[in-house]
Amino acid sequence: MPATTMKALRKVRPERGAQLETVPVPSIGPNEVLVRVRAASICGTDLHIYGWDRWSQSRIKPPLTFGHEFCGVVERVGEEVSAVAPGEFVSAEMHVNCGHCHQCRVGEAHICQNLRIIGIDQDGCFAEFVRIPATNIWKIDPAIPEHYAAILDPLGNAVHAVLAGPVAGQTVLVTGCGPIGLMAIAVAKACGSSSVFATEVNDWRREMAKKMGADVVLNPAEGDAVARIKKDTAGTGVDVLLEMSGNQGAIAQGFRALRAGGRASLLGIPSNPVSLDLVNDVIFKGATVRGIYGRRMFETWVQMTSLLKAGRLNLDPLFGERTSLEKFDEAFSLLQGGHAGKVLFYPNGKPR
Amino acid sequence: MPATTMKALRKVRPERGAQLETVPVPSIGPNEVLVRVRAASICGTDLHIYGWDRWSQSRIKPPLTFGHEFCGVVERVGEEVSAVAPGEFVSAEMHVNCGHCHQCRVGEAHICQNLRIIGIDQDGCFAEFVRIPATNIWKIDPAIPEHYAAILDPLGNAVHAVLAGPVAGQTVLVTGCGPIGLMAIAVAKACGSSSVFATEVNDWRREMAKKMGADVVLNPAEGDAVARIKKDTAGTGVDVLLEMSGNQGAIAQGFRALRAGGRASLLGIPSNPVSLDLVNDVIFKGATVRGIYGRRMFETWVQMTSLLKAGRLNLDPLFGERTSLEKFDEAFSLLQGGHAGKVLFYPNGKPR
Amino acid sequence: MPATTMKALRKVRPERGAQLETVPVPSIGPNEVLVRVRAASICGTDLHIYGWDRWSQSRIKPPLTFGHEFCGVVERVGEEVSAVAPGEFVSAEMHVNCGHCHQCRVGEAHICQNLRIIGIDQDGCFAEFVRIPATNIWKIDPAIPEHYAAILDPLGNAVHAVLAGPVAGQTVLVTGCGPIGLMAIAVAKACGSSSVFATEVNDWRREMAKKMGADVVLNPAEGDAVARIKKDTAGTGVDVLLEMSGNQGAIAQGFRALRAGGRASLLGIPSNPVSLDLVNDVIFKGATVRGIYGRRMFETWVQMTSLLKAGRLNLDPLFGERTSLEKFDEAFSLLQGGHAGKVLFYPNGKPR
Amino acid sequence: MPATTMKALRKVRPERGAQLETVPVPSIGPNEVLVRVRAASICGTDLHIYGWDRWSQSRIKPPLTFGHEFCGVVERVGEEVSAVAPGEFVSAEMHVNCGHCHQCRVGEAHICQNLRIIGIDQDGCFAEFVRIPATNIWKIDPAIPEHYAAILDPLGNAVHAVLAGPVAGQTVLVTGCGPIGLMAIAVAKACGSSSVFATEVNDWRREMAKKMGADVVLNPAEGDAVARIKKDTAGTGVDVLLEMSGNQGAIAQGFRALRAGGRASLLGIPSNPVSLDLVNDVIFKGATVRGIYGRRMFETWVQMTSLLKAGRLNLDPLFGERTSLEKFDEAFSLLQGGHAGKVLFYPNGKPR
């Protein structure tokens, strides 16, 4: 007999913290899929929800099971679902698009006007089971290990940012080495970038940047990072800027280090308006700036799956603790210091 | 016997104003061309030089013959020049690239690291003759009238801005209706844009915007231009923003009116750093921003010549006074009010 | 009380001809829409089905209601349908994609591996009602007249072919002036092409090509069309080839007339393998060849709707007879001569 | 005192063979550079010239020093040359463009209408010295070894073919594993392709393909290569075809193995017109076909230099004999069997 209740990590009250509760297993509609979660990964956004910052207060409506990075095994499918079957190993795009707005119609579903996010606007994956629309399911080759499969959401951010323009034979600067910045380093190298520069103030993250393959890792708090990058590129600057920090100073440095004619992918989220020297950094430079949000549905998923299956990405250094849902407080504390890799929950038993 | 001296409009002292002088006809090197100027057009930059603003003070080294928009007839060519001959009707790209920097090598000569501008960094075309490197000469089909041929430089700016991304079947917003903004309206319509919106505070320019083909012309000082544009685009916003004003408020409005997934070409030159809501205007929107400088050498020239020859651009409403070099003070005064079209000098005799 | 039976033009036996029958009105599933057909247009493919050629014999499984170009008014919608409502004026993409193959996942649904075509693989629109999946419905601005709305399918082919590469300021050659070739002429002009050349052996169609806006219309059976095109393009050749004939000779001529670095969109369907001088026509030329099938779902639909709403396309010369389903034999005869424009059926009453 | 004569390998008579002669050192014009050749590599084209095949008979005008792949040290420069100086380590683009045809003006100098090739249309690099226009000189980082620097011409062909469309996260098929095909395998892997398939009938070359990094190497003469590729790509086919053979059968197989929506780069030169199933292989497939000729000037050079400097390409397995000009007969014999890697001449002394 199938389970009717399950454990779920939930924000139940509009305040800091979270609570592990027993709730009903979600029921699914005709076009939906129920997935038994194998591994779920904690995103920076989950930290914001846990900490109940200003953004969370305006967006999250408790009670909510949060979490939006995961992999698992299909438990059952709705009656109209034919493309996926129980027992299959899957992850999912957690951004749910409407299918009929302008953006959905022109192949830009990732910036749908009516986007809803599972784990933010409806119950997510920090639970034994999660309910997903069938079209959002992404089947995973069993050759890809569980811990990799659990972080396709942020890896997709990185792949989307890197491949939003040419990268083969190009010099790249990654500003900000949080998890997505670190993944972007590996992706850029795998896709043929020549030199990858990285800037980061946090010592532990700079160490990680080297492990992920960055050629030159700089602390912008010590010495003139822009001057160094210009020097190493014969005075020209880098071809590609991958802005992952959201920090005003890093953004300004990144643009100054970008060559005329270069491309900037902006992914980091500044908390305030940003002052830009548009004339010198964008206009006279003939630069191209790409805003990066989510992952292209599903071009990015194809690209990253293909890179992973072919063994082109070594993400092992990224991973930190693997723990149970019960230990959520420790997990969030660990991450808040900024000195941990991706922390994974295993709601249905130990890592394989 | 060839002329040895000529009239030239020159900045001779580091102060406001200009002076009409008699100077030697330029001598040319083996790879250069001497052009007898037929018509020369006044650019906003020339107004800055005439008025001796802060930018001029830092960039211009008097004495200098200024002017950088013109057409004329080849008078003589250097000994190594084979691609153009005396008697041919020509204009010229006045941005002179070095040919060996990174940008020149990758087909981005318009953003050469060592760019020099004729009429700014060396003697220009407000004179009877002007000296031009042979590779910068652009031959003009005699079917194109002189007054059109004199404004290919700013028309090229407009074409570059419009064609820096898709425009056919797209909605377009032009913010700022100076000469380049006005030309951009005509170019966008000729290249298949569906609706063209234009915003401009100056009454005369709004009137001109209608004449150039804008479908909806708005005064952002009266009423909510962004709300109107959103309403007219079913809540989606425009596909393309052509920012021609350099004005902080207009830039902010332009980005708010841009749809998620849209493209912004930035050409207007802000005089200060600009504060941008990067998160909502670029990142979450998945927008593409293109800095536009000069004209692509020479893709843009091919495109605009082709459009002109085919009679696809009616620029007639744009033209104002046609006068002689002697009347330069009246010409500059006229333009400073912002209520005049393109004013042309004819240094070698009357318009044909 | 809703109608339970309807008239439908059907292929009932594996032989030449068709039959007007009374059949049940289709019942719809939860994600489907029933449309009352206003105007339906006859495609060349319908002629093949009527004539029962070799292709039809291998693909069509009688009994089948054929027809796949139409517009109409939504009669009713399935219970899961929210994006469209009864009474709305619509057309539809008749290529039904699977949603989960590689191509569907990477934004290329128009070349889905499991594509089914309404009117070919299942009952089509030569009837009072037609059943359509909700996601394939395309809402139409009531400003667009019925006869235009009925031919969005072939117009989409033309728009897809023209916009598969740059066209603004480009010279274009259309080889073959059947309905799609003729539409392509109008689309290319509306999107900024400078000169449009057209080649066609049929006198009536050459006359039509002029009406649609072609600048130079040539009969390849009389005189050297390639030489003429080369001469008119200063020896360079055209930037863009739109191959609409499927004819070996026209394809060869088209490639010879294409400039080095040019782009060819191939849409016409050759009935046999084609012999190409790959070295001189493609490789040494650095040409780009794009295979064009169907319409991009739904970028092309957005583009063409936008052009139509803005009044950028005058397709009036294209239209021929407007008739009733009962007169199908006359309609097909008329078309088989190749001397008629688009012929429309009005299954539910006269044209408005 | 500078040398006035030099050794040169020349085609002196219109017949099979070549002759090592003593000839004057070339004199240079004001915009030219004289380079002392360090290493020169034999291209398949040189074999054709040596063997005096039909193509050679129509193109080559003896007497001619042939050879067009090399590196060397600048000996002296013309008076107008400022971008390169004696003593610098260089290679050169041997395709000399006119600078003023349509293609040169739109950034497609590699397909210039008036292209001349050094080593084919004028004296080449199988000599102690070679004369090169200054703008064709490509400076090489001394970190790049001489034998790599000598083969930038064919490596550029490979890079141009691979990067003529997306390759990161894509499956690739290389048909034909001559030197350029082999290099293309390494380039594709370095630029993020997931699986690289290669087909080749020659045993030695199949062995080489594995060494260069191909994931699956197939002999099309044994078993159904297309079926195998389809099977390994879940029935979809490859994203990218790199056609390097010029062989009718291989071209047909390549297109059948290409997925709908895929991209084919055609570089191999068929000796006769090719019969293509345009309908199924290009049109219905919505495929993109790119003709590849030479190297983009100089985007491709930047890309390959960048990849080489960063150590992203291991080309060591490719190299065969390194010999003196005197041993040209042995060198050509060796290559004619198709069982040798790149053979290099060292006209000015031994390899370092």
Description:
By secondary structure, chain A is α/β, with parallel strands linked by helices. Chain A is 28% helix and 26% strand. Chain A contains twelve helices and 19 strands. In chain A, strands 3, 5, 6, 9, 10, 18 and 19 form a seven-stranded mixed beta sheet that branches. In chain A, strands 13-12-11-14-15-17 form a six-stranded parallel beta sheet, with helices on both faces. In chain A, strand 12, helix 7 and strand 13 form a beta-alpha-beta unit. In chain A, helix 5 (152-162) crosses helix 6, helix 5 (152-162) packs across helix 11 (299-309) and helix 8 (225-232) runs parallel beside helix 9. The longest helix of chain A has 12 residues, at 179-190. The mean pLDDT of chain A is 96.
List keywords for this structure.
352 residues, homotetramer, alpha/beta, 6-stranded parallel sheet, 7-stranded mixed sheet, 12 helices
* Radius of gyration of chain A, in angstroms, nearest whole number: 20 Å
Q: Main β-sheet of chain A, in a few words? A: 7 strands, mixed
Q: Which outline of chain A best applies?
A: globular
Oligomeric state: homotetramer
Secondary structure: helix percent of chain A: 25-40%
What average pLDDT do the residues of chain A reach? 96
Strand content of chain A: 25-35%
Give the low-confidence spans of chain A.
Answer: none
H/I helix tally of chain A? 12
| Class from secondary-structure proportions of chain A | alpha/beta
Show the largest interface.
A-B, 38 and 38 residues
Distance between the termini of chain A: 25 Å
Query: How many E strands of chain A?
Result: 19
